Amino acid sequence: MRTDRWWLAPVLTVIGLTAWVAYATFRVFMQKLYWIDAYHYLTPFYSPCVSKGCYPAAAEFGRFLPDNPLIPFAALSLPFLLLFRLTCYYYRKAYYRSFWLSPPACAVPDGHANYSGETRFPLIFQNAHRYAFYAAVLISLINTWDAVLAMHSPSGFGFGLGNVILWINVIMLWAYTASCHSCRHIIGGRLKHFSKHPVRYRLWTWVSKLNARHMGLAWITLATLAITDFYIMGLAAGWWSDLRFIG
Ligand code: FES
């Protein structure tokens, strides 16, 4: 009986997520235009680059996965990132509502006759989110290391527009990861008295502020990831050149 445009959010979510997944899939299997040798820019979709097909200079952590068109160059990290996002509390809400219509919006009937929640196979595996969080922290560290290594030019130290884009992406990835509900629980959960744990309490208040923005950060990081990747692809393809400030 709702007469407002309750369907708008689910429709925008379907369009946004479908477009992003299509772009990411296309790029991950492209296996080229992911590395700028002069500036050491590596797109996050290929980090860490661990395939035998990677450029040697881009493979900071070694090249040990087979070079196969069906195996992404970052096949070590991508499954964990996918798990982290798929089991994220916000994305669960987003795709339950928009793709599964379960329910499509508040006070709108569920698209299904039965509802078993997340208590049974397969959705019981949504509980793996807390473990995916630890993997995401490790991968964010690797992305940070990539951004540090990218402060490079053929003459040594360098800084350009690509660095600005890479650092914005890394900062946003940390903000998204730190705003995770599992992170908030790890930091401030299971405590009976905050007064006896002042450091954890202080951290918990910071994380809680970020946590309130988790949905926004989820979308912002999808955008920064795609923009970073697209910028580096364009540089590698010669569509534009990097605006250099130093080096
Ligand atoms: Fe979204 Fe953990 S709840 S990343």
TrEMBL record:
Keyword Transmembrane: yes
Protein name, per record: Membrane protein
Keywords on record: Membrane, Transmembrane, Transmembrane helix
Organism annotation: Catellatospora methionotrophica
Lineage top rank: taxon: Bacteria
Transmembrane parts of this sequence: 7-26, 70-91, 131-151, 157-176, 217-240
